[in-house]
Specification:
The chain is of the alpha/beta class. The chain contains 16 helices and 13 strands. It is globular and about 125 Å long.
């Protein structure tokens, strides 16, 4: 176990090793690494550490755990644990310690020291409407590390700035600290303040909140409690690891038994207000930019949730047709980013949901900009032949023409030579008769 001073020295050096460090990665057999711009960069100390040993990562893990019996027990029982770590006056981290092949690895996600607003993040105006909702469920989904927590913090900050309400958050771990403005915040951490999300949500309903944040809907019981909370007038925010809005709805429904599906569909159609899905795309010139799919509620969306998708009624089609209401598909937003030259064509095609629609959209943008749409660079006109080639071709053509003229005269001479023999044969035949 390292002394706190040594741990802070190591973390400070890692943070200063590259611009815009987002993660610190400590894995046995590799050097200390930081992630910047989506890429891992090795960081070397003096004396040089070419690859971490199992002892070194275990010492770092124990230093981060700080003797917390609950976290140590969770790590030993389940093979991983989550916690937060505060580097005094420098940064806060969300930490995950886990075992792989019997050895410890550590991933530390750097958290912002301040909460960025909806305007700072450049989010669409639909996010302001989300902060104004009075009840229902709002989901923010995406893969790990796509900025779901940052987006939720921005929405809650807008609630904090505009409404005098009680907000209870259930997090694993607590990441952004909300300083009270108009709202009152009680931020609870999994493992320290409650045992699991379903129990924390059940107790939150007795704490008179108007807004509840559930870190993640991991099981059926948590979803059931969230639906009940939304139905009783609470506004519930939560996250899921799903790729788009349609998959989010199907994932929630899939947590229930088949005989419960119809009822769950009706309840979800009545309570679901917004679904936001996020992807982080590499940006031209470095860094990353968020692509967002935004789906709100409407009669058509409710009908699809209640009865399921049909060939002529899909979530994608419904979102695409309702852009004037603030909805947008991933492909629509990615095309906007490409048109603004924030991402390149390869990135747009790679991260699109429907390749055909994306290809057509890219061609339209390029045509409007006066760029070539079709890839004809590899084609070339046949080169003109040289004078020598022309002369050789003319000589060959003349020879072929002369040969063609001689052929009929040769055939005529052959016919004349055959005629006397034919007359002799006819006279001989007449004499015999």
């Amino acid at each position: 176990m390292l002394h706190l001073f040594h741990l802070e020295y190591i973390l400070t050096k890692l943070l200063n090793a590259a611009p815009d460090v987002s993660d610190i990665n400590l894995t046995v057999g590799h050097p200390l690494q930081v992630e910047s711009g989506g890429e891992l960069i090795p960081v070397y100390f003096q004396p040089e550490i070419r690859s971490l040993t199992a002892y070194q990562t275990e010492a770092l893990a124990l230093s981060l755990l700080r003797g917390d019996r609950h976290l140590i027990g969770t790590l030993l029982d389940t093979g991983s644990c989550d916690l937060s770590f505060n580097l005094e006056n420098k940064a806060r981290f969300r930490v995950n310690i886990f075992t792989q092949q019997g050895r410890y690895s550590i991933v530390m996600r750097k958290l912002e020291n301040y909460i960025r607003s909806i305007e700072d993040l450049g989010l669409p105006t639909a996010f302001m409407n989300m902060a104004k909702e009075k009840n229902g469920i709002i989901m923010v989904t995406g893969a790990t590390g796509t900025g779901k927590t940052t987006t939720l913090a921005a929405i809650l900050d807008e609630v904090n700035s505009s409404q005098a309400v009680h907000v209870v958050t259930l997090e694993d771990p607590v990441e952004f600290i909300h300083i009270p403005k108009m709202s009152t915040f009680n931020q609870r951490e999994l493992g320290t303040d409650f045992r699991n999300f379903s129990e924390g949500l059940r107790s939150a309903l007795r704490q008179a909140p108007k807004v509840i944040l559930v870190g993640e809907m991991r099981d059926r019981e948590t979803v059931e409690m969230a639906l009940s909370a939304a139905e009783t007038g609470h506004l519930v925010f939560s996250t899921l690891h799903t790729v788009d809005a349609g998959t989010t709805v199907n994932r929630i429904i899939g947590l229930f038994d088949h005989d419960e599906e119809k009822l769950v569909r009706v309840r979800l159609a009545d309570t679901l207000r917004w679904v936001v899905s996020q992807r982080l795309l590499p940006k031209v010139g470095g860094g990353r930019v968020a692509a967002l799919e935004v789906m709100g509620t409407s009669l058509l969306i409710k009908d699809i949730i209640t009865n399921g998708e049909q060939p002529d009624k899909t979530f994608y089609g419904a979102i695409e047709s309702m852009r004037p209401l603030g909805y947008q598909t991933f492909d629509q937003h990615i095309l906007d980013l490409f048109g603004s030259k924030l991402i390149n064509e390869e990135t747009a095609r790679t991260f699109s949901s429907k390749k055909t629609i994306m290809a057509r959209g890219i061609d339209n943008i390029k045509a409007l900009a006066g760029e070539s749409v079709y890839a004809l660079d590899s084609l070339s006109l046949e080169e003109d032949p040289s004078e020598e080639e022309q002369a050789a071709a003319a000589a060959q053509a003349a020879a072929e023409e002369a040969a063609a003229q001689q052929q009929p005269s040769q055939q005529h001479a052959q016919q004349h030579s055959q005629q006397p023999a034919q007359h002799q044969q006819q006279h001989a035949a007449a004499a015999r008769r």
